Amino acid sequence: MRRLRNVKIVATLGPASNDYDMIRSLTEAGANVFRLNMSHGEHGEIRERHAMIRKVEADLGRPIAILADLQGPKLRVGKFAEESYDLEVGAKFRLDLDDTPGDITRVQLPHTEIFAALKPGSNLLVNDGKIRLQVEDCGKDYANCVVTVGGMISNRKGVNVPDVVLPLAALSEKDLKDLEFVCDLGVDWLALSFVQRPEDVLQAKELAKGRAFILSKIEKPSAVTDFDAILAVSDGIMVARGDLGVELPVHAVPPIQKRLIRKCRAAAKPVIVATQMLESMIESPMPTRAEVSDVATAIYEGADAIMLSAESAAGDFPIEAVSTMNNVAMEVENDPVYLDVMDASRAGKKETIADAIVSAAREIAETTDVKAIVCYSESGTTAALTARERPHVPIIAMTSRARTARKLCLYWGMHCVITGEVDRFKMAVVNAARAARTCGFATEKDNIVVTAGVPFNVPGSTNILRVAPCDERLIFNTDPE
Predict the structure, then answer these.
(1) Each residue of 361-384: b (16+ CB within 10 Å) or e?
(2) Which pLDDT tens digit goes with each residue over 344-363?
(3) CA-to-CA distance for 302 and 269, rounded, in angstroms?
């Protein structure tokens, strides 16, 4: 089960991937993380999927991360008297709180928070941006608009408000119940939708109480504007290009994606690139060339993970979609240009002993014949710093905590091994050598770099580096007690 790539693959589960055999096949095809979309499925279904993932994990003997993606507040128009209406450019259209069925001139918008934030000139996007309305005048319970981009409008279509920070919490009542459920269930990562400000993330962290790591979805212009503050309080980031591409000009999304990835890497926090990566594979066993290029671009930019949504959740070819991502990743990462890009984009201040240790480990591995970097990491921090370096050799993260191993499944290059606690550095080196051989990264004739912290089992204590042989006889003959 050794992966021959560094970027991780996140696969969303759904009707097309809802049994043990399929989840196992997706894992064997290359999935490292499974996403549970809380927008779909009752708690009973989510519980069953969680149990199946954990059974696959136990049967295959390798950690698997589970990401629960909260729905977030959904802003939608009300219902219409007829099935749909065609709004023409230049037409007047009113949004209000009246629950009378709408027509070609008006419809209910049951969100007082939106009216409170609107001002003349604000834009509202309906049905994934297919319709654009510009506010001419507004009050606490209405907005009179002009249609600037026309199209068909119908019941319960979604509304985006890109120009303002809405006075809405990122967590709806449904989200609060879902958060508590999945945290008790034992998911590893919690994806927070509709993040607008760092306070949204802090609220989720307070409610999670350390039971799951918080991953902020960047899908609002305000989140892009305040990204540095959001990143500082988040454990990870998802570049959710779907809504981001609705609320911002589509040509603005690629450079934003590149900037966010670089900032995440500098902060040693994982970043997922998501949405429409292999969209055509929902119905086709083959992707388009543009989609393959999109996946490759995210990998070249240094993303920790790339994500499948409907392709694996509801598509006809979920295994083929994962295999395609896996093959693209291997091809890109074998390109010498990829290594050049990773080296040229290396960033992050070296301020601590751990920073210096992992930097030295990478330099040693790249200038000598070392087959792998093995890092002992109780909290995962040192492993994350090692991933930030993007070394040219594999990274093996060893920890006694299953929670840490599962967390690290989302990080670039991590091959996670759960090991027993050690109290002597010699035994740490021995365990590292065994793991490198067992996982197929080295033979007895090879050397590895081992990083650890003394005293052991204390998070944040990394302070030692050793170039060690993979032959245990040499370790016992050369290492002091």
Answers:
(1) bbebbeeeebbbbbbbbbbbbbbb
(2) 998 767 789 999 999 999 99
(3) 12
Cβ neighbour number for residue 431 with a 10 Å cutoff: 19
Catalytic-residue membership of 289: no
Residue 163 — pLDDT band, cuts 50, 70, 90?
confident
Q: What is the average per-residue pLDDT within 164-189?
A: 95
8 A C-beta contact, residue 300 and residue 338: yes
Q: How far apart are CA 476 and CA 269, in angstroms?
A: 37
Pairing of the two strands 189-192 and 213-218: parallel
Helix (H) or strand (E) holding 140: none
The pair of three-digit structure tokens given for residue 387, joined into one six-digit string: 């991933």
Question: Which two structure tokens, joined as six digits, stand for 36?
Answer: 């549970």
**How large is the greatest C-alpha to C-alpha distance in the chain, in angstroms?**
85
Q: Is 76 a catalytic residue?
A: yes
Given 35, 269, 388, 466, which residue is catalytic?
35
pLDDT at 98: 97
Strands across the sheet containing 370-376:
414-418, 395-399, 370-376, 447-453, 462-469
Where residue 453 falls among pLDDT bands split at 50, 70, 90?
Answer: confident
pLDDT tens digits for range 99-124: 999 999 999 999 999 999 999 999 99
> Rounded CA gap, 205 and 203, in Å?
5
Q: Does the pLDDT at position 46 exceed 90?
A: yes
Q: Which of 278, 256, 254 is nearest to 326 (CA)?
A: 278
Strand, helix or coil for residue 391? coil
Rounded mean pLDDT, 116-140: 95
- Of 132, 217, 258, 269, the catalytic one is 217
Mean pLDDT of 446-451: 96
In the chain, the domains with their CATH numbers are 8-72+170-335 (3.20.20.60), 84-160 (2.40.33.10), 353-478 (3.40.1380.20)
Q: DSSP secondary-structure letter at 193?
A: P
Structure tokens, 107? 């419809």
8, 24, 49, 275: the catalytic one is: 275
* pLDDT at position 466: 95
Quick one: DSSP state of residue 37?
Answer: E
Active site residue 217: yes
Catalytic one among 76, 79, 262, 401? 76
